[in-house]
Amino acid sequence: MDEILEKMKIFDENFAEIKDNIATAAKKSGRKAEDITLLAATKTVPAEVINYAFSKGLTHMGENRVQEYFEKLPHLTASLEQRHFIGHLQTNKVAKLVGTVSMIQSVGSERLAEEISKRSLEKGIVTPVLLEVNIGLEQSKSGAAPETIVSLAEKCGQLKGIKVEGLMAIPPIEEQNDKMREIFSNIYQLYIDIRDKKIDNIMMNTLSMGMSSDYELAIEEGATMVRVGSSLFGKRIYK
Ligand SMILES: *Cc1c(COP(=O)(O)O)cnc(C)c1O
């Protein structure tokens, strides 16, 4: 079967079940299904398949690479509000990206925050962002260490071209559920701590954590948004 049709079929088989699982996990944490946003992580997924998913009720997508995103963008039916950026972002790509997505979820440094703010102001807009926290991934370059996230938030609060709306995390995938649950719980605690500090111009309304293998756990521990790729579209085919 051709790759496009195959991925559409996989989406049809999985979408309803994932939405059910999200509703169940939301209930376990005392919330409603509508309180959780399912964002499809669409790296390597062809535009036709993404459009098909939106025609079936998907509401949010997130892309990882600026170049891949711009190749797909002219073919996408998703509105600006429905498109997020979730990948590692180099400062030299910021000018191009700003204004083409409704949120940049992967802001892990002051330098990147400043560049997004500057380029947004040049375009006369304010870009909603999430601060990316690096928990448990020692080798990873992306994301800010938990100890530095409050000071990053305070600095971001002074930048006029961005609006911090919450946190995003890509924790390492642990074999044991207990360990994974503990990591999600720690991230949630950090989110609450920052919210309680009531830092100027900083909102904590979105906690983006949980992927294909652990989105239910993440919701049980307080995620408001999950980013699911392979469970929606099947294994990624890198070309
Ligand atoms: C690819 C990706 C995901 C989704 O991963 P799956 O395990 O396929 O669900 C989520 N978040 C980010 C930042 C990603 O790059």
Account of the protein in words:
This protein is an alpha/beta fold. 41% of the residues lie in helices and 18% in strands. The protein has 9 helices and 8 strands. It has helices spanning 3-28, 47-55, 66-72, 94-97, 110-122, 149-156, 177-197, 215-220, 230-233; strands spanning 37-41, 60-63, 83-85, 103-107, 127-133, 162-169, 202-208, 225-228. It has an 8-stranded parallel sheet with strand order 7-6-5-4-3-2-1-8. α1 packs across α2. The chain is globular. The two termini are 18 Å apart. Bound molecules: pyridoxal-5'-phosphate. Residues 41, 43, 64, 86-87, 170, 211-212, 227-231 line the site of pyridoxal-5'-phosphate.
User: Can you give the mean pLDDT?
Assistant: 95
Helix content: 40-55%
Q: Runs with pLDDT <50, length 5+?
A: none
Gyration radius, rounded:
17 Å
Largest sheet: 8 strands, parallel
Structural class: alpha/beta
Straight-line N-to-C gap: 18 Å
Strand content: 15-25%
What is the element string, with H for helices and E for strands? HEHEHEHEHEHEHEHEH
- What is the total tally of β strands? 8
Describe the global form. Answer: globular
Strand line-up of the largest beta sheet: 7-6-5-4-3-2-1-8
Instruction: List the total number of helices.
Output: 9
Bound molecules: pyridoxal-5'-phosphate
